[in-house]
Amino acid sequence: MAVENLAFLIPVLPALAFVLTFFLGKKLPNGGSIIPITAIAISFVISLLITLKLLANPEEVVSQSYSWFAMLNIGILVDPLAAVMLTMVTFASLLIHIYSTGYMSHDKAPSRYFAETALFTASMLGLILSDNILQLFICWELVGVCSYLLIGFWFEKPSAATAAKKAFLTTRIGDVMFLTGIIVLFADLYKMFNGTIPDGVFILRFDEIFAHIPEIAAINSTILGMEVSHITLITLLFFGGAVGKSGQFPLHVWLPDAMEGPTTVSALIHAATMVTAGVYLVARTFPMFIAAPDSLMVVAYVGAFTALFAGTMGIVMNDLKRVLAYSTVSQLGYMMLGLGVGAAVGAEAVGISIFHLVNHAFFKALLFLCAGSVIHAVGTHDMRQLGGVAKVMPITAATMIIASLALTGMGIPGTSIGTSGFFSKDAIIESAYLFGESTGTWLPYLFSIAAALLTSLYIFRLVFMTFYGKPRTDYGGHESPASMTIPLSIFALLALIFGGLTAEKFNTFVSETFVNNFVHVDIHELATLGGYHLVEHAGHEPLLVLWMPLIVALAGLVIAYLVYGLKIVNMDSLVSRNNPIYKLLYNRYYQNSIFTNFVSVKVIYEGFAFAGRAVDRGFDWTVKWFSDLAIESGESLRQFQTGAVQNYATAVITGVSLLVILVKVVMEVL
Amino acid sequence: MIPVALYLAVAAVIFSIGLYGLMTQRSGIRILMCVELMLNAANLNLVAFSSYHDDLTGQVFALFSIALAACEAAIGFAILMALYRMKDTISLDHINILRW
Amino acid sequence: MMPILSMIVLIPLIFAALALFTKTKEQARVIALAGTVIVLLLTVYMYVNFDSTIADNQFEELAQWVPSLGITYHLGVDGIAMPLILLNAIVLPFLVLFTWNDERKSPNRFYACILATEGAVIGVFTALDFFLFYIFWELTLVPLFFMVSIWGGPNKHKAAIKFFIYTHVASLVMLLGIFGLYFAAWDMTGTPTLDIPTLISQFQFIESGAAKDMIFLALLFGFIVKIPSFPFHSWQPDAYTEAPTAGSVLFVMLKIGGYGLFKVMLPMLPFTASPNLMITIMAVLGSVSVLYGAFLALSQKDLKRMVAYSSVSHMGYVTLGAAGLVSLSVSGAMFQQFSHGLIMSVMFMSCGIIKNTTGTRIINDLGGLAQKMPKLAVIMVMTFMASLGLPGLSGFIAEVSVLAGSFVNLPSYVMIAVSAIVITAAYHLWALQRAMFGVYNEKLGTVTDIDTFQTVSMGVIAILVLYFGLNPSPVLEMMLTNSDQIVSLMAVMGV
User: Fold this and answer.
1) Structural domain of residue A628, as residue ranges?
2) Is the ipTM of this complex over 0.85?
3) pTM to 2 decimals?
4) Subunits with at least 3 CB pairs below 8 A relative to chain A?
């Protein structure tokens, strides 16, 4: 039996594991963690085998479709893009699950935890495997709801329940945009078929969508007085969804709060299963983006700005996990930028962006698991209370440093020596330079360079504050058990060498996603449609451009060492409420006050909803007015009923007399 | 022979007296008596027309009517008796529980 | 061939009469369960033998009744009615199970009311004669009125009378519409008939355009109030909130307004004098209902009232989808009725349980119930997610079909409805967070989790919500067949 036919098992097995663990987990040791681990391990093996097969022959992708209802289908598609994502997600999720058996061993509801993480993984795998946009959206939403359940895993904590709600609602804003994009796309395609869709044609399947890109691009509509091409509208709406899910500005606010869940959940969300979905969506629909005028520019700008913006907040946070959260936001900004520069480099953008996504998954999972290891051992995640942890937890500290080096992208340009982050992040920054050359807009490049400096600064600040120096409080930690340190070591190994091993092959492999037996897209033709001029990628950048990322990363390292390692600068004067810049950063640009307290509570809840209540009272009052009218007219009419027989008799006689006279008169006249 | 018009005139006078009484009196007994007057005026008409047309049907009807009037009077007086026992009055001004 | 439709209409009514004569709760509930289960079995039999590829009426029964006035005893089901009958037949046995251990006054009358409502509602869905249709239509009012006014909450009398009079007035306007259609057709053909399919097909031949529009609007008013749609919804929150749990569920099962929309309104729509105006009216009412209901739900403090307003919001999709006039949107709207019935019945059951165990439904007074009632929490989270339109659950299929389908013809109205999605998520999550999560409010005293009967009844319906969310075809297939037919009528008229 060919392994392709087992592809459907990749999401189905973890989904089954969810059901089994949910109902039986309580009766098994360790919350039944063995069920999801086995299921995900099998999924990983299948994904890996399919990936290897695709590597040999990237044009023969796996594609199976079944009719669902009406003109919609469910199906699976494993092309190079999906294959690498599948392998990465199953692998990272597998290691995180193994790590969790140690981490969650003291929790009171481990079976619920493992059930929910299994479903989380299943939804993400389903999302990656989707061969149509609607199924992708369905899994997308399931990912959202799983994150809701997992962030609120300790739901008895009010802050966790609030953070869960915030995460779900914020991403929901993006989801609505995504859904709107799908609706517009559906309506356009539906009109193209004149409402009669032949059997066997599923109009929301990617091949069908991509085949109609030129026709969609030809449709224009006027929105708020602006003439907008439908393809731009649709892609920007899709990107809105990605902004929500992948924590891009301005919908990134949920991601740092999402730390309320167990640390392993953060690792899952940040590395494997959730935030990468947005990047994947843009990568998956890349042919639409490149055919859409302006869309990729928006993607590049938002990505670059997010990378910088999140970095500034990362340098002032005192919570171990929050620093990592802002780091994720920042790195996701890089991935978006990597896709945005497709305006200059074409389909290769998908390759470099997904490459960074995969590398990031490894080192970010590692960072979180290290943080989890520290928190598990010492019971606090406030860096001001830590220090010198490296002495008690040598393995954790070593892996953490490797992860930090990978995050900052240390490596020697022009050679293939370097950490994973070096190969992908530098590629993005260099492409941003090409993008600047090609389009004449240099801001994304400048932002990405500045963000690289900040990245190095905040991560080494974290390292020096946590692992070196003297302990600031008496925490008494110990090294974590093997179930936790082994996944750490594996991730550390990958963070160190994965980039170097695969850099050559990866980009070309993933970039072949759009030419195979399922879809066949001419990226250059579509780029003309979108008005982009692609440049042939060649190493003709100035030498300084190649070295720049390394220089700023080292600069960050040095500054962090001087300030937090040697403490030659007294930070107390800077780190105070009196410093307006620090205050602004520490309060995270007052986003919470603006978005949560003002917009959601004041405007939406108190303003609109209560205005609605008043209007509703108005409707109720109108109805009551009618009933009062009826009652009052009855009140006045019943005065005629005196109850005295004489009055009735008089009325009868008067009436009869009048009638007789009337009849008489009428007869006379006629 | 007395012309039929005179019978009718007498009947009309009696009817009007009854009607006037019905509209002005307050006592239940008087009202009942007035109703009897009006009925008898109608009976007089029946008999008068009967003899005018030489047809006995009218007189038969008059007999029916008298019998009915007797029944009605019996029931009416019984109701008034019952009311009197309950309220110590038969003035219809005070018997107005159906009012409003 | 047995008269299966007469049986599923009459059996609940007969069992209702039987239940009235029982003396104890034990007897009454057994009678009720027996009646509803028999109906379920017959309905399943009917469903299995139903041909979902044709849009015609099936299992027809026809007998003369008052020939001089053209009144017949005519029953039949098509793809519009079948899923709704199925919905009633499925939910009612579980509703009886849900109330199995409740203590209340005069249980015999209580179960009689449940059974009578079932019979009357199924009667509306099967009647193919306006006379019969109207009888059943009004018959639904009676048991529901007593349901609210006998077993309801503190303001039960006001709510019951408001519900009765409001919807009764609407029914009378609808009756005027029926009369208008009846006499116009009688004038035209010379023979009186009250047969629904015949009258609908004769509607197009009526000469006067003004008369056509008046007839259409009168019927539309009757149906819209029953749905209920903004701005004629104000009877609904009071009635839903004051009704006992079983009464609220019965209200949710009362999908006769939307049914009328598909069965009577849409086939007539292309032949009105001004179809575009009518479409606009329906689209405005639908899309505004969606947004308006969502905002109102957000501002409620009482959990059950919030659910009631969310129902206004969800039923807005029905009107909007009907106005969308694309096969997908119309069948999505039909599916929304089906799915909404399932989801809302569990939501109202949850509200009832919370009120019974804690003594309050004010959301801010609750808190942390999930710790004490884990089973309820799981079911509640699932149905709340279904209600906010989470994919994989039945609400999503309906919403996405309505929105995507309607966008083809009515883009701006769809945008109004789409903007409500975030608000919908907000009030559901807000309520969940306050009521179920967070620190347990010790003032609530000791609470116990739901018992087996309640778990089973809510659990089974919740599983059906999941099933139809993953595989809507069993009911969506026949809806698509019928909406294809309706939409092809539109195409003929070039609407």
Assistant:
1) 593-669
2) yes
3) 0.84
4) B, C
